[in-house]
Amino acid sequence: MARTTRYAPDRGLTRRMATTMFLIGLLYVVFMGVLIALLQNAWPLIVLFAGGMFVVQFWFSDRIAAYSMGAREVTPEQAPELHGAVDRLCALADMPKPRVAIADTDVPNAFATGRSQDKALVCATTGLLRRLEPEELEGVLAHELSHVAHRDVAVMTFASFLGVLAGSLTRLALWGGIMRGGDRNQNTAILALIIPLVSVVVYVISFLLTRLLSRYRELSADRGAALLTGKPSALAAALTKISGQMSRIPTRDLRRAEPFNAFFFVPAFSGDSLARLFSSHPTLEQRLAQLATITRHLNR
């Protein structure tokens, strides 16, 4: 049974999550069907591999994400300020406290991961903790806890995983079906062309669907955090400060962080990145404009 919190409900986000998961699920059913039709003899291996990856992703997504981003769990004694902020926000939102972690990087950011509120993990980087004032830090953490409360972090984790699955299944299919079909040169050549093409199409469509959802969910989390804390100006200050600091971070560190942009509070962009064209986040101007509107509403 899903837990309810004091975060403002967002029906628009719920509809978008349901639509995205339906379309991506349909897309991958078609993808699996195409692979099975093309490689009849290899279908048991394909189904077993896909099922195994799904189980691993569902049960261990939080640990995989934390490990990939260099996060380590910390105790209240090791990070009293960070734990104190999370404790206050969880009490305010009436939600279970997630595990708390710190990533040792100068890139100022934060993220949340986990398949449910009870299994969630919230992480802040050392660069973020050094730069933000307490109220600003609480605004950022409230934003991340909003992702957990609305369960969109679980949807994004699963949706992003499907792109990895497409590439992995393609390699498995080529290895399991084509490599053992060396005596059928014409069929092998056709499969070698069709399977990667189908995989690329599937990946591009799933990428665009997750990006559309990601941009909306960031605005939703900003809105939820601002209404919960009653301090949209603190969140706006954190956004402005972090965005301004990104240009001072070494390009090498930004490139290392870019693959995880969909999960970050603010995207990490290196100067020559094409990610701006397919951004996982709305623009800074859009986010600040929404917070300004909320400020006027609260003042009234």
Descriptive report:
The protein has 300 residues and is mainly α. It has one domain (11-299). It is built from ten helices and four strands. The protein has helices at 11-38, 43-68, 80-93, 126-131, 134-150, 152-178, 185-229, 232-246, 251-257, 284-299, and strands at 71-73, 99-103, 110-113, 121-125. It has a four-stranded mixed beta sheet, sandwiched between helices. InterPro entries: HtpX_protease, Pept_M48_protease_HtpX, Peptidase_M48. Its main location: membrane.
Number of strands: 4
Structural class: mainly alpha
> What would you call the quaternary organization?
single chain
Biggest β-sheet, characterized? 4 strands, mixed
The percent range for strand residues is 5-15%
Strand order of the biggest β-sheet: 1-2-4-3
Average pLDDT figure: 80
Radius of gyration: 21 Å
User: What's the number of helices?
Assistant: 10
What's the domain count? 1
Whole-Å distance between the termini? 37 Å
H and E string: HHEHEEEHHHHHHH
Residues in helix, %: 55-70%
Instruction: List segments where confidence is low: pLDDT < 50 over at least 5 consecutive residues.
Output: 270-274
Global morphology: elongated
Summarize this structure as a short list of keywords or feature phrases.
300 residues; mainly alpha; four-stranded mixed beta sheet; 67% helix; Peptidase_M48; transmembrane helix
Topology:
Layout: H1 11-38, H2 43-68, E1 71-73, H3 80-93, E2 99-103, E3 110-113, E4 121-125, H4 126-131, H5 134-150, H6 152-178, H7 185-229, H8 232-246, H9 251-257, H10 284-299
Parallel strand pairs: 2-4
Antiparallel strand pairs: 1-2, 3-4
Helix pairs in contact: 1-6, 1-7, 2-6, 3-5, 5-7, 5-8, 6-7, 7-10, 8-10
